[in-house]
Every structure is written in C-alpha cells, then in structure tokens.
Amino acid sequence: MTNVNYVSELLERSFTINNKEVIDKHQVSFEVEKQDVHQILSVLKTEGWIQLSYLSAIDWIDENEFELVYILMNWERPVHIQIRTRIERENATMNSIMPIFEGCKYYEREVHEFFGIKFPGNPDHEKQLILENWDDMPPMRKDFDPRAYSDAHFAKREYTTDFSNLNNEPSKQAKRNERKNRTLRFKGGKK
Amino acid sequence: MRELKLFLGPQHPGMHGNASVHMFVEGDIIKRSYLLPGMLHRGFEKGMERHTWVNNISLIPRVCVVEPDINEMAFAMGVEKLANIEVPERAHYIRMLILELARISIHLMAYGGLGGPTGNYTLMYHAHADRNTILNIFEKITGHRIYHQYIVPGGVRKDLPVGIEKDIHAFLDDLESRYSEYRALGIENPSFIPRLKDTIMLPAEVVWELGVTGIGMRSAVNKPYDLRKVMPYARYDQIDFEVPVSDYSDARCRVDLKLKELVQCIGIVRQCLAKMPKGDVRVPMSKGQSMRWTVPKGHVYACVESSRGEFGYYMVSDGKSVHPYRVGVRGASFPQGLLGIEKYMPGTRIDDAAMWIDTMGVCSPEIDR
Fold this sequence. Notes:
heterodimer; A: Beta Polymerase, domain 2; five-stranded mixed β-sheet; 5 helices; 5 strands; B: alpha+beta; Cytochrome-c3 Hydrogenase, chain B; three-stranded antiparallel β-sheet; 8 strands
C-alpha cells in the first residue's frame, strides 16, 4: 500500500472529506470541514506527521470566504499532506492549533497580520510582527490595492533635471584637455 | 543584577541580513530575546499576485539573497506540477549542476561568515575568494553572477556554453585539494574549538517542537532526512551520494556537517557532468503567446532542500488568469528564526548570539519576504 493510500484510508474512515486530490506520489490534499481540523491534525500527528511545514491562508473574495491551509510532513513516510478548510470572511476566526503544533505560533501571527484572521488560543496573535504601525486593512486581502495605499500615504516625487552649469565649472572635456596639455608641457613636447 | 536591553542588528551584521534581535541581558547572559523582523519586508507575496507567471521568474530569486537558485527551482517545480509538464532529461542534470554549485557557494559563505563573530577573518577571505570563482562560473553559464533567472518552468533558459566542464573540473580539483586546509583554519583550529564545542545545543525534541529542517535536524536526530533522498526531485535518485548525520548537535557538529556536505556536493557535480545526456534543455510552456501563458487550476506545494532546510512554495492558480492567485513562501529558517530565538536563545552568552544565528542557519530575507 502506498503512503498516499494509507493517509486517504486513515482520514476517509472517520472524517467527511469534501474533496481529495492526489498531486503526485509524495503529496495529497484534503478539503475538510472547519470543525474537524483539530481532530484531523491530532490523528495525523500520532500517525507520524509530526512536522508542520507551512500554514497560510487564501482569500477567495468572490465566494466571500477564506481558505486556511495546513501542510504537514512525515519523514518516515515521505508525504506532504495539505489540509484545507474554508471559513467565513466576515469576522474570520479559527481556533489556534498551538496545543497540537507549537511551531504554529508565528505562522498564525503572520496570517493574522496579513489576512486579519483571528486565532483565539494563541496568546500573541494580535501583536504586530512584520508591518510596523500599519493603519489600513490587512494587506494580503484581495480588495487591498497597494497603488491606492501608496498614493494616499506618500507624496509623489518630482524629478527635475537641470543641466545648467551653476558654479561656472569647466566641463569634463575641458578639464581633460587641460590635464593633457599640462602633461605634454612637462615632457617638453609643447610650449 | 539589573536587566539591560541590547540590540543585535538591524545594521547588516556580516551576512545575517537586516533583522534585529532584541536581547534582555543580566551580566553577559541573555535572559529574554526575540527577533524583530520587518526591515527587509518587500511584499513579495502580494507582488507575485500582481505580476504574470512569466514576470515572476525575475522576481522570485530576490526572495533569498544569498541562495537564489532554490527559489527558481521551487517555483519551476510548482508550475510543472500544476501544468503536468515533463522536463527534458538534460535540463534535469543542468539544474542539479547549478543547484549543487550554489550549495557549495552558500556553504562556503556560511562557513567563512563564522569568521566574523569568532574574529578569524582569514577564513572569511579564503571562503569568499572561492565563492567568487563559483560566481565566475555562473557568469559564464547564465550571464549573471548572483540572480541567474536560469532555471525556468519547462527546463533551463539555454544550454551550457562549450568548454565550461573544464572550468568546473579545475575549480573542484582546486577546492578538494584545499579542503584539509579549510578544516585546519576553521573547526580544527585550537582557537575555534572552545567557542564552538558543547555550546548552542539543539536536542532532537526541540527540532520536532519547532519544525527545524535541514542540517539542524540531521545533526540532532541521526537520520538522513534530506529531501534529495526522501522525495527525490530532478534526478537525485540516479546520483550516488551520502547524507552526513550526527546525534549530538552542538555548534561544532553543525559546522562539521556543513563541510562534509560540501564534499558530497563536489561528488554530485562531477557525476552530473559525467552522466549528462545530450538533447533539448527546454520545453515551451504553451502554444499561445509566449509571455502570457496560463497555468491549469490547482493548489500545489513544491519544496526543495536548501542549505538551511526545506524551502517551499505554495502556489494556487485559478486557471483563468495570467497571474498566480496566491503564492506563499515557506522560508527554511522561519521556525528557528522566530520561535527558536524567542524560546531557546535565552541562556546563551551575548558573544555567542551571533554564532547562534549563524550556526542555526537563520536567513532574514526569507523570514520577511
């Protein structure tokens, strides 16, 4: 039995899987219900998927939903598992998985900063991490427009090119000619 | 004793990038510490959503400054997985050649960078001189020294130039002949050993708790957990190499593994040159416009083994647009750089803090993105 089949059987036996996709022999993805995520992650952790490789979110603005992605890795049975779940976009909240994977602490903090999803259970998730003194909506949401933000916050820089010779300095070519003549004078070539 | 607040960074401290470590110290022992990232945040993930798939090829190498090729490889692998493209055989070998040369250069740079906090600058000059030779080889192959944009979805940009094998073999022979010199200058140097031995420990439990990968993990758990072995990409399954491991992870052991890996890299490059078949190096991505191709719908996570561990791209395509819907970067040093510094740096001495960052392999450009 391949590793991907092993995982599929394990999860399909006890949980509702909305969609399963086998990407290649080392990767498989499951779309699950929001309330099952913590149980699934616990089961997988006891089965050997002890490393949380990645945690992030996707903004599906047309369907008014966020999608959370948890990627787990097992080094004994080399399969990356994507666990994906959809949550509401308004007042987006998802319980933290810190009791299961402690390494998620900063991933959740980053997702909160960039998408505005709240993670009750993670003590620091509302502290600022990367964006210092941010005053707009979370920037990775699809309705955030970086160009509008930049126009509103920063003055347009005006570039002026002024080629007039203010200090009345001789041009580079004149300086070069002068140097050349001086050298020649020292060598006695030109009086 | 009074608690004092000290900063490491954010000015460029050698090669760790522009991140700042805030340390609360009593005497010379760190009591609390945390990383303050954000000085290098350039909004890559948002930027990638606003560029086309083709434009992103020139954007992604900038994610990690010192090791850009892994970005290109992970991005190309992700697009190929989504679009179900088979890369030509020769392109696989050229990719491995580039990746392993890049690994030699980054290991040399990290090893030489250890000369900064320990005050052994000779080592740094030697390592950077050798790295420069690799950059010269890259310049001949790709036309660029640092950001190559050479590994593209569908293969590599163009074939190897004629006669480059001679240059590569000459460099590898030279490096191999001076390998014992490198060891004598660095980790076998009597002035180095007291600084490195039995300090900055990384037990296996901490590895699993944080999610550390790469040399940090292999040095603690004594198993060859390397993505090149465990889930081989390109043609690593047809190459004969070993993954050095250990079960006692102090700073000296992790540096030692780095040097042992360097020897393996030399072997891999030689095998690549010997086994490289003839043929095409690139398949076109689409039949339509060459600059505005689309990628089929799907979610994929593509990862490669970088010098610091598992480095991956999470990519989502909606199938209609010429832009990616979402690209997420899993920086290899995210776990040890943020949670590791907060939980496990306290207890070390101030002068070991820079060495902690160096031997754990923390790279701030990939934490900030």
